[in-house]
Amino acid sequence: MPSTPRTPLTGSACSLVVCRGCCCGNARKHPGTDHEGQLELLRAAASEHGFRIRTTDCLGPCDQANVIVVGPSAAGRRAGGRPTWVGFATDDDSTDEVVRWVAAGGPGVAEPPVTLELQFIEAPKDPRVRSRR
């Protein structure tokens, strides 16, 4: 079976920042969510599709956990794409939709699934909110 070329892991790919702070990734607050499984799925997809992923402490909108920020690729930025905040990403469906969107090009390049758009949230305006612990 021929292999499919992957996008190189450079500044040309989308990126994901996955919150794993006080509320996101917390089994006590979201007991029905497989938080480690979600990270494994995202990491496997990043390897397969060539996008970058990292985790961070608290991004801020704790009442909308789990939060994932989808950063545009260089092409996406040139096309007007901006970082997109996705909240309430606690199930496999939303995780899969994030992966499909990013694999298709992400912000500025591909239209997000309509159901994923329903999970878009505003980035915190006050930088102190993001440093909450």
Question: Can you walk through the features of this model?
Answer:
It is a single chain. The chain has 133 residues and is of the alpha+beta class. It has one domain. The protein contains five helices and five strands; from the N terminus they run βαββαβααβα. Strands 2-1-3-4-5 form a five-stranded mixed sheet, covered by helices on one side. Helix 1 packs parallel to helix 3. The termini are far apart. The N terminus is likely disordered.
Overview in brief:
This protein is 30% helix and 14% strand. It has 133 residues and is of the alpha+beta class.
SSE arrangement:
Blueprint lengths: L14 E5 L15 H15 L2 E5 L11 E4 L2 H5 L5 E3 L5 H12 L10 H4 L2 E2 L5 H4 L3
Parallel strand pairs: 1-2
Antiparallel strand pairs: 1-3, 3-4, 4-5
Helix pairs in contact: 1-3
Organism: Streptomyces cupreus
Protein name: (2Fe-2S) ferredoxin domain-containing protein
Task: Please name the defining characteristics of this protein.
133 residues; alpha+beta; (2Fe-2S) ferredoxin domain-containing protein; 5 helices
Structural class: alpha+beta
| Order of helical and strand elements | EHEEHEHHEH
Whole-number tally of structural domains: 1
Terminal CA distance: 48 Å
Write out the strand line-up for the largest beta sheet, numbering strands in chain order: 2-1-3-4-5
Taking the sheet with the most strands, its summary is: 5 strands, mixed
Oligomer category:
single chain
